[in-house]
Every structure is written in C-alpha cells, then in structure tokens.
Amino acid sequence: MSTTTWGWLVLAFPLAGTIVNGLGHKKLGRGGAGAIGTLAIGLAFVSALGALFSLQGHDAEHRQLVSSLWDYAVTGDVDAKLSILVDPLSVYMMLVVTGVSTLIHLYSVSYMRGDRGYARYFAYLNFFVFSMLVLVLGGNFLMLIVGWAFVGAASYLLISFWYRRGTATKAGIKAFVINVVGDVGLVLGTFFILRHSGTLDFLGTFRAVDGGAFDAHHGSLVAGCLLLLVGAFAKSAQIPLHTWLPDAMEGPTPVSALIHAATMVTAGVYLIARMHPLFEHAQAAADVAAIVGCVTLLVAGTIGLVMTDIKRVIAYSTMSQIGYMIMAVGAGGYVAGLFHLMTHAFFKALLFMAAGSIIGAMAGGQSLEKMSGFRRAMPFTFGCFVVGGLALSGVPPFSGFFSKDEILAFVGSRGGWFDALYVLGYVGAFLTAVYTWRMIFRAFLGEPCAEARELEHGHLVHAEVPTNPANGEVEDTDVGFPGPEHTIAERALPMKVAMSLLAIGATVAGLVQIPFVDHVVTSFLEPTFADSKYVHAEPSNGLITFGLVLGTVIALSGIALAYRIWVLKPGSATVWRERFKPAYTLFVNKWWFDELIDLLVVRPFAAFGNFSRRTFERVFVDGTLVGGTTSVVRAGSAAVRAMQTGFLRYYAALLLLGGAAVVLYFLIVAS
Amino acid sequence: MALSWYLVVSALIFCIGAGGVLVRRNPLVILLCLELMLNAANLALIAFSRMHGNSDGQIFALIVLVVAACEVTVGLGLIVAIFRRRLPIDVDELRELQG
Amino acid sequence: MSSVVFFVAAIGAIAGAIGVVALRNPFYSVLALVGHLLSLAALFLLLRAEFIAAAQVVVYAGAVMVLYLFVVSYIGGGATQLTPGGSQLRPVAAAAVGALFVELAIAVLGSGLKAIGGDGAPYVSGFGSPAAIGEALLTKFLFPFEVASLLLLVAAVGAVVLARRRTDKGTMLDDDEREGTHWITPRSLFSGTMAEAVGAVRDPNAPQEVER
After folding, report:
1. Domain-embedded: residue A41
2. pTM to 2 decimals?
3. Could you identify which of A94, A316, A383, A403 might form a hypothetical disulfide with A304, taking C-beta atoms 3.0 to 4.6 angstroms apart as the criterion?
C-alpha cells in the first residue's frame, strides 16, 4: 500500500468510528460504543505505523508525499483541494496523536463507565481525533483551517459534555469564542500569504517563499505570520489568549488529558513548525513567538504555584510547557520543540489520568486543600504521579529532562537577546518542579484525609448529593451526567493498562534523543526541516553539558524546596504566603487576565451588542424593514381581500367593468 | 335597414341584460337577464351571417341556442335544489364562497 | 315596409328586455322575456334566417320558457324588492352598462367594416332555409353538432342529479362503513354538500337504486 493510502486510512478510521457511534448510539449500548471508539483509534494508530514504515521505505529526498482526493475549487488564484501531505512531520504528529488517543480511549472505557452519555462521549472523542488528524495531515491551508475549526468545535462539545452544569457550558463557550478569534487570525493570515504565493498548497507556498515571491512584500509576509501566530496562540493557550484553558478543565478528565494536554493545544506548535519557511523569512514574527512562549511559561508557572484545584494546576503546567515548545519553534529549534511535544504528551496525559483517578477517590472533588495522604490507599496512582512528576520536572533519566534541556540548549545557542530567554527558561523549570511536587506532596503525603482512610479500608466514598465541584451547586443528574459510580485506577484494569503504558513512555521516550549518544528524532524529521536555516545550528558541546547539569540541579532543588515547604514544615506555606502577599495576590488572581479581557473586549462588545439590539435591530430592522414590508403586504392583501366578498353581483360588476375597459382599450387602439 | 341598426339593437339588449344581472337579486331573474345577453349575441351573429351571405353565423347561433338551453336547465336545477334546502333565494345571501 | 316591421320588432325587443329587468314579479319577467323572444324571431326573419327564427320560437320561447314558468311556479315569485340591499350597486351598474353601450355603439357605427352599412350580401335563394342549415350542420359543422348533442346529454343528466329529492330526513353519519367515504366528514342532511348531491353518501332509509 502506498504511503498516502495509509494516510487516508488514518483519517478514515476515526471518521468511521464517529459515524458509527454517532448514528448508532442507541443500538450499541455501553460496551459497543467504547469498543468501537477504541478500536477505531487503534486501527488509526496501526495505519500511522504503516505510514511510518512505508515512508521510511522512500529515500530521503522523496519523503514529502502529497495525495489529493478531490479538487474542491480550483480556479485562477485559488487551488482548494482535499489533499494530505505525508511527510516525516505529519507522520510524527500522527503517531503521537493516535498513540496517546488510543490509550486515552482505553482509559475512558472504564472512567466514563457510569456516565449516561457514554456513546455520545466516544462519538465526540473520535470526531476530535479525526479533526486533529485532518489538521496535521492537511496538505494545504484549506485542510488546515478545516481541521483547526473542527478541533475547536470538538473541544467545545467535549468541554461542555456535562451540559447540565452551568460552569461547563460557560467554559465551553469561552473556549470556543477564544478559539474563533484564533480561527480568524489563521484565515486572515492565510489570505495575506495567499495573496503573493498564488497557491494554497503547503509545498507550493514554501517553494514560492524560498523562491523570492515575498521579497518585495515583506510586510505582507510578516503580517500573515503574525496572524497565523494569533491562531497558534489561541489554540495553544498562550498569553493573551490563554484564559480558556483553565476553565476547560470542566470537561471530563480524559478529555483534558487528550485535548488539553497532548494534542489540541499542541496544534499551535505544529503550525509554526510546519510553516517554518515562512517564519524564517519573517524573522519578526518568529521572535514574537519566542518571546510570547517565554512569557507564558513564566506566568503560567507562577499561577500554578497557588492554584488549589488539582486539574487547574496541571492545566497551567500544560500552558507553561507549551510555552517552552512555542519558544523553541519560534527560535528555530523545531526538532527540540517537537521532541518535547512527544514527551509532554506522554507525561501530561499520564498526570491527567492519575488526577482522574484521585478525583474518583474523592467522589468528584478536585480541591487540593481537601486531599491528603493518599499514598497508602492508592499506590498505583501515586506511582504514576511520581513518574509523571519526575518527567515534568526534568529529572534524568526521564523523558522530560532530555526534551526540555534540548530546547533550552538550542535557545541558548542562538545568542544575543535569546540569552535572556535561556535564563528565564531555567527559572521556569525551577517553578515547574516546585508546583508539580507541591501538588504531589499535598495530595499523597501527610495525614490521610477522610476519603483516604475509607479507601484504605477498601471502601470508595460516594457523594450522597451530587454537586458541582467548582461551585458546589446541586446538580441535575437526569441527563448526560457523570454517574454515581466513580472509578479509580487501582480497581479498573483498562485504566491501569493505559496509565502503565504512558508511564513507560514517559520514562523511556527520552532515550531516543540523548545528547552525544543518538538523535533518532532529528534524523527522522530531517527531510521536513532540511530547508531550514537552523538545521545545522547545533549548540556547542559545552553548552549542552552545562545545560544537562544545570537542569538536573534545578529540578532536584525544586523538588527539595517543595518537600521542605509542604512536607518537612507544614504550615510554612502560609508563612511564605504572608511574606510575599502582593505576589501571591497577583498569582491567585491569575494576573488578572480574565478581568482585563472582560474590560477591554467583553464589555465593549456587549455594549455594542446591546446597542444593536435595542436601537438598530428594534427600530430599523424590525420596525422599518421587517415591519414595513409586512405592513405593506398586509395592507395589500387586505385591499385584495376586500374584493372577495362572496357577493355574486359584485363579481359580475367587476367583470363588466373589466369588459368595458377592454373594449375601450380596443377602441382607442383602433382609432 | 342597414345592418348596423341590428347591431346597435343587439348592443342595447346586451347592455340591458348586463345591467339586469348586476341589479337583480332573485337568481331566477338573473338567469333571465343572462338569456337576454345570449339573445343579443344571437342577433349579432345572425346579422353578420346576413352580411357575409353564408350560414356560418346561423349555425353558431343555433349552437348558442343549445348552450343557452343547457345552461337554463342546469341553472334551474340548481335553483330548485337551493329551494329544497330551504335556503333563501337571494344571491346576496348565498355568499359562502368568499375569503 | 321592412323598416316599419324592423322598428316594431326592435321596440318590442327592447321593451321586453326592459321588462325583464324592471318587473318585480319573476313571473312577469318571464312573460316579458317571451315577448322579447318573439320580437327577436321577427328580427331574425327580417334578416332572412328562417330556420333560426322558427327554432327560436319553438325551442326557446316554447320549451325553455315553459320550463322557466314551471320553476317559477314551483318556487313562487315572492315579492322580493328590486334592489333593497344592492342599491349601492345601481350607480356602478348604470355607469358600467352605459359605458359599455356607448363603446359598442361607437364600435359599430364608427366601424371600418363598410358592409355593415349596407343590407348585406346579395340574397341567394335557400339562404337560411332548413336545407341549407341541415347541410351545413352535417358537413362543415359536423363536429360542433355532435358536441352540442353531447352537451345536451350532460345538461340533462346534470339537472336530474342536481334536483334529486331525498325522501327521508336524517343524517349521513351512519354511512361511514361505506367504502371510499372515510374522507367525507359527516354533515347533516340538506346541508347542500356535493357528496349528497352525487349520491356518494346516502341515508339508510333512502331507496338504494336511483334511476339514471
């Protein structure tokens, strides 16, 4: 089978899964929907592997294969086709997406077991995977935009999955609206680029840019790339379009694991990596990306220090790590950024899954302030948290260590003002270690809380009255709602299998790209990035070694600090809080971004909307246009209706008058 | 007499019949006025037949006679049916076909 | 001589027409129409249409008007007012009718047809005779002739159907079991539905077979 056929198969399986689950959800019942969903993604993963082996069968110059299924609208200036591009980058992303998705589907099979919307969940999840694959496999801007929009829609559907919760629906809308802002940026950026490149196709556009199509229109290129960045920032939750990601934690935990950790939020990273020829010619845009990535990783890190909801800590951690990736691809370290993408997918999904397990033990509660001492009651979950936490903090030999240090080494090797980013990156790494282990120590060490004690005796606590963990209001459990059963990993085999595989990945995935030893990822991705000007910009050996050592030291010191504050001297956290009160207030209010956006964007638009509704819509449209038209029609029909009296003689009179008029006309004409 | 006289007489009778249709309320009388109009048309046809000198117009008039007879038959049947249903014999009252 | 006959006949026709319209009693209106028809027959004779004149008298004045008289006697004239409620129609009627007459008069008198001004084509012996009419009917106008006879048949059947009498009072609600009537909503008898007239719905006491 040709490589591109494997590519189409990768798209076809999740789509089939969506359709079967979506249309047949009443007939399939519990087991069927979950099995079909997982099987569909599993087959997609197998097809991705097929694409991988088939691609490696080609020689290095011919590893960028385009296959077009259908010409959608091919006219003079626009060539919109349904085409996919199978090259090392897209195969890499495909493997990550389908691999992690399969494991998350497996996890969901038992996590969502008691939920009424089980089949709907799997239909949505398959749809999401399909959209993400369209995004990464797309061979032209059209497919990219379509996949981008679908992913946003799938994210909305899944965030507000428990749609009876007001908080969930509000979060879904917030995510969707911010993503739409990104969509607009993406589409406008495409227009700017299309104007002078003449083609929507990726390879064609890159050839045009490298061939000098934009030499005279540098401003257009920079504007286009900046607009593409708007899209990337919205999707990847970078400042200032990041406010949706913490709220998106309203969705079920596997959704957070898949969408908001491993796949959707990495779409921005993929976008910049894919468009690297454009960004390399528009250096300003790439620099903006790097700076924004760095700012995000710091801000998110600081907020993660003070959050009390366990899922939100992990969400801000995601934001921070994506900041690392954006910084990397903005600086030109594409391979480093993508390598971190893969390892991050593993350990972040693992952390979310483990968080789901502990949330199950707390009967749905997510607050860190109520959790403590689960170490003895949930050893497997604790182990997963430890593995994920070590990988996230960047402790060798776990995967996060190698990927994060590769990023920072590359940034450092750029020189100039990138050195500031280099330093801030290590500050961020320190913060990462601290907040990660704060979460782990608080939840698992210390005195067991009531739920933990119950669990040690083998009894899983259930809430008598289901309440929304976010705001405590009592919930309507009639429809589409988490069922009364909670699952923890220790008791569910699918969850255990999925988490174990991810733990293994988080541990050993770094071994493919150990500095000085091997560079599997670099050589695999080389055909895609061969035209990059940074392809030979290797950091010096000294810098690499220094980075490795510094990274280890910082990670371990961060863990040590967290241990001291939250385990050795409990209560010292409150002391620190008092000592740094202004900083604490800033972090707890999430740097007031929500309020700022509300003031600058939401209120003016709401005012404009109100004005439109009250004045323009009511007076002009309803009153004049619609009301005027209807009253004209009504008057006309009333006039005509007056003729239909039913009186025979009136009809006869009309006939006669008409006859007289006709004869008069003929007389006049004839004279 | 010149043929135009006959035609003028025909027009006059036609108009009188039309006026009668408009003015009378009894459906029987309306039918009678319709007969007037038909007869006026017959007169015109016969006059023109005389003008041309062939009998086409007379045949036409004969057929008009047949049609008038049929129409009278059916119309009177309707009026008898209306009378049997105890409905008022007044075209101003029979106005359900409206709207 | 012929002018005198013409004027007499014309005045008779017009007087009969005015009588039809103006007389209150429908019986008198029918009689006025009979007079009108006889005057018209005289006019036809003046125009040398012998057969048509005879047919007019025999068929029209003889048969059709007799039928009219039957019906008028059955229904009773009633002294209905001339135009009590339709008086607002009188000026409109006068205007429309007057306008129409004026226009037609202009059309006739100002016509470009020169032949109207004269007496018509030269008289051919046998013009308007039954032989001529018969020959035309059976050769040139055979199809209209046959269609006209069909029309008469239809009218006769229609009249019989329309004026059929129900012998018993009752509702038609009992006939739902008849095939093909499920689409007919039950109505009381004598409400004038076409279903009743065409016999699609019957009451059980009426005679089943109707002579056709």
Report:
1. no
2. 0.69
3. A316
DSSP readout, A355-412?
HHHHHHHTTT--BTTT----TTT-HHHHHHHHHHHHHHHT-TTSHHHHHHHHHHHHHH
C36 touches B at CB < 8 Å: yes
Same-domain pairing of A364 and A447: yes
* Residue A233: count of CB within 10 angstroms of its CB: 26
Q: How far apart are CA A417 and CA A131, in angstroms?
A: 38
Asked if the model's pLDDT at residue A671 lies above 70, the reply is: yes
User: A392 and A304 in contact (C-beta within 8 Å)?
Assistant: no
Q: Which two tokens stand for residue A338?
A: 């993508």
Encoded amino acid at A308, one letter: T
Q: Do A645 and B97 touch (CB under 8 A)?
A: no
Residues of B in Cβ contact (< 8 Å) with C144: 59, 63
Lowest pLDDT segment from A392-401, A643-652, C20-29, C171-180? C171-180
Between chains, do B92 and A649 touch, taking CB under 8 Å as contact?
yes
Claim to verify: residue A523 and residue A541 sit in the same structural domain: yes
pLDDT tens digit sequence for A489-502: 888 888 889 999 99
Question: Does residue A637 share a domain with residue A496?
Answer: no
> CATH assignment of B3-84?
1.10.287.3510
- First-to-last alpha carbon distance for chain B, in angstroms, is 51
Give pLDDT tens digits for C89-104: 788 888 889 999 999 9
Write down the pLDDT at residue C212. Answer: 42
The pLDDT score that the predictor gives to residue A25 is 75
* pLDDT the model gives residue C192: 60
Q: Which of A641, A645, A652 shows the shortest C-beta gap to B95?
A: A645
Range of the domain at A561: 347-462+474-588
In a shared domain, residues A643 and A500: no
- Whether residue A647 and residue B99 make contact (CB cut-off 8 A), yes or no, is no
Last residue of a domain, one of A588, A622, A645: A588
Residues of B with CB under 8 A from a CB of A: 18, 21-23, 25, 30, 91-92, 94-99
Res A456 pLDDT > 50 = yes
Neighbours of chain B (3+ CB pairs under 8 A): A, C
CB contacts, 8 Å: C89 with chain A: 649-650, 653
**Among C47, C43, C50, residue whose Cα is nearest residue C11:** C43
The answer on A611 and A519 residing in a single domain is no
Size of interface A-B (CB pairs under 8 A): 30
Q: Which of A553, A571, A588 is the last residue of a domain?
A: A588
Provide the ipTM.
0.91
Q: How many CB atoms lie within 10 A of CB A335?
A: 29
Domains in chain A, number: 2
Give residues with Cβ within 8 angstroms of A270, minimum separation 6. Answer: A89, A93, A135, A136, A341
Residue of A654, A664, A665 for testing the chain C interface, max C β-carbons within 10 Å: A664
Instruction: Give the Cα-Cα-Cα angle C172, C177, C178 (nearest 5 degrees).
Output: 80
For chain B, the structural domain boundaries read 3-84
**Domains of chain C, start order:** 1-77 (1.20.120.1200), 125-163 (no CATH), 169-212 (no CATH)
Partners of residue C148 in chain B, C-beta under 8 Å = 63, 66-67
C63 inside 8 A of chain B by CB: yes
